[in-house]
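Hi, here's the filled form for the chain we discussed.

Project: internal
Contact: R.S.
Residues: 609
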Amino acid sequence: MRSFRFLTLLLVLTLVLPLIAPSGAHKVAAQDAPDVVILPVNQAQFLPGVYFDLRVEVHADALPEDFAVTVNGEDAATFFGTDLVEEVWDAGSEESPMPVVSQIWRDVMFTEPGTVTVDVVAGGETTSVAYTVREPITDGTAKNVILFIADGGNVGLYTATRLVSRGMEQGTYNDNLSFESFEEIGLLHTSGVDSIITDSANSISAYNTGHKSSVNANGVYADSSPDKLDDPRVEKFAYVAKRVRGMSIGIVTTSDFTDATPNGVWGYGRDRSGASRAAYAAQILDDGLVPEVLLGGGASYLLPQSAEGSRRQDDRDLFTEYEDAGYTIVTTATELDAALADGTPDHLAGFFTPSDMSVWLDRNVYTDNLGQFTDQPGLVDMTMAALDVLNQNPNGFYLEVEAASVDKAEHPMDWDRAIADAIEFDRAIAATVEWVQANAPDTLIIVTSDHGHGYDVYGTVDVEAFNAASDDAGRREAIGVYQNAGFPTYVDENGDFFPDSWDVSVTLAQGKVDHPDFTEDFQVSPVYRAPAICDDQGVCVDNPTDDENGITMSGNLPAGESTSVHTLQDVPVYATGPGAAYFGHVLDNTDVFFGMAAALGLDPMTAAE
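And the returned structure, exactly as it came back:
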């Protein structure tokens, strides 16, 4: 009987396992055949005329005698009309070497819509991927595209932002956020090639290329080579728009301008860390995009390594190189105003802090946290400046605007700073809508986020009762749920959409599904929060100086995580203007690229006049 049951189970597994195996390159097995990796990956989608690189990795000391790469049955070099480059490297360690032989075809394209199959024969095994080349949508009527990104934005946070910013009377909000009135609302999936959980780099890369990537990677398919900047690229939307239409390009961010989301417009590489960021700062000039507007933080990546505060590892003075490229450079809000008052420049670059810019709450309330950088512009000011510069081009523009610190505050669970920056994001969108109506009605505006956080509100907190409690049990009794929650006591008497005070008597009971060990008092912090600290072994524990009177929250993350992390949830997308209807659906994050191209009627097979 046991033998019969075992054979039955074996038969079931034999039939079922192929159905549940991960999707990817299809292989016809052969004994002792080497592993083969094809990049771009299976199911990738393209527009005709968009440049990309095709890499084939063979994990072996040498290519087998039967090695061949064909595209729709034709030799790859013949199909693309270009020669390959063969490269050899070791992807392993000294203890465990992993030799790789690679062939790569750079700057190739598909010229016609349809299905394309790439087959690689190696050691008697065939590995295949199938691509879809989409038919361009050429009847779009938009002239400009503006992509707003609230890094880490999610429905829970937007709901809390609406409550704090607009208020509520007997269960009815006094108003919606500006972008919640857009005519199209949809959802975007955010997962990447290597993980269900995305980071900002590979998700914003999907928006700007129409292709998936891997965690930390931007504009590339991550390969196994030691060089983190040589991975196979896909041409980004900004490059296509400038090459085909002669459009102007703008980037506005409240982060370091080399950070993942702003870098999504122009940068290429698989590592978002410091060394690669120095390269990204130079790629703007070296790769020839030269956006007309670049505003944010990150000045330390422009200084030669000999200068104090530099984060470069070479002697390039990018401040000088940017000036030589024609940029008007500003470093304060006062200088930004003056540059525009002197006559709108053709190229404008602002670097207002060495790293990330300060959040709204510190710029406007807790100003002691600013240090020497007390003259920073806000997101509204930077966005309006960018629009004035970009609108000088009769061929139109593409502008990406990021509220970066929504995410940077959500990670350490600094709820007030996250909500304040989300309100500022809303104000930048409202100002843009007004500007578009007056100056450029043929503009598509898209509002979304690169990924979500598992944030939500579940009640309110009586602050006086909470602070008077002597233990966690008493503090928990100060939290009101359901009918005991009532309403928070934020007030906006001056009508600027920000609370007049963030230190209120009844605040929000709020939190995330993921976190380290920490304590929570639900009240505004006068300094940026650091909920957990890590020892020399990398084990993170509750920070005793953060929310000392808070409720103890037992962590549910790996021991090395000191802040909360991103989550799987789909993110909302809002759209208005010509081409907006494309976004009123459940879509993949790669669809944003194709939706922007469709709104413009962009056919990359045509050349700029």
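Let me know if anything looks off before we file it.
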